[in-house]
TrEMBL record:
Keywords: DNA-binding, Transcription, Transcription regulation
Organism expressing this protein natively: Galactobacter caseinivorans
Protein name: MarR family transcriptional regulator
Keyword DNA repair found: no
InterPro entries recorded: HTH_MarR-typ, MarR/SlyA-like, Tscrpt_reg_MarR-type_CS, WH-like_DNA-bd_sf, WH_DNA-bd_sf
Gene Ontology BP terms: response to stress
Organism lineage string: Bacteria, Bacillati, Actinomycetota, Actinomycetes, Micrococcales
GO molecular function: DNA binding; DNA-binding transcription factor activity
Length: 186
């Protein structure tokens, strides 16, 4: 028998019937479960990052740069890997540079491009946060056995691949779509 958690009440008038607490026998729907897990992970992640003085967006960008540190990354390539707009990447990269976690240098092969390299301080903070993140992830997903863990990862990966635009990261995708428009566009 599969255990289904009771989710906290979180309905709105705009979405009647989406509150699994309104009917004691109702099972939460898949989108509700995914939202609940995602929201919980995000809140935990933000609290865990606070002592490091780095935001989730900054860490993701720094992590991407460190992962390719043997070969400096172009700013536009980092934006592409993060699935964010170039202007959003420029803002986050500027923050990383002002913290002393990366350096920006002109690309000798293309004067219009900028190369990003992690500093020692950037590699150190990225390593500490990555270690903490791995530990927290292990703790959070410890209730899953190895087979369930692998299956969940496989299924979520399928959804990300099938819906790359919806899976895009960044604050712009957190906004609902305006009437007649696309989510995250301004």
């Amino acid at each position: 028998m599969t255990h289904v958690p009771v989710l906290p009440a979180a309905t709105t008038d705009a979405h009647p019937g989406t509150d699994p607490g309104t009917d004691p026998g109702a099972q939460p729907e898949l989108p509700d479960l995914v939202h609940f897990v995602s929201h919980g992970l995000r809140r935990s992640w933000m609290a865990d990052l606070s002592p490091f003085g780095i935001s989730p967006h900054q860490w993701r960008a720094l992590h991407t740069i460190v992962a390719h540190d043997g070969a400096p990354q172009r700013q536009r390539d980092v934006a592409s890997q993060l699935r964010i707009a170039a202007r959003s990447a420029a803002e986050v990269i500027g923050q990383l540079e002002s913290e002393g976690w990366i350096t920006r240098t002109p690309d000798p092969s293309d004067k219009r491009a900028v190369l990003l390299t992690a500093t020692d301080a950037g590699r150190e903070i990225e390593g500490r946060v990555s270690q903490m993140r791995a530990q927290r992830g292990s703790e959070y997903f410890a209730t899953l056995g190895a087979q369930d863990h692998a299956e969940l990862k496989r299924l979520l990966s399928l959804l990300v691949e099938a819906h790359p635009r919806q899976a895009a990261a960044g604050p712009a995708t957190d906004r609902p779509a305006p009437a007649g428009g696309q989510a995250g566009t301004a």
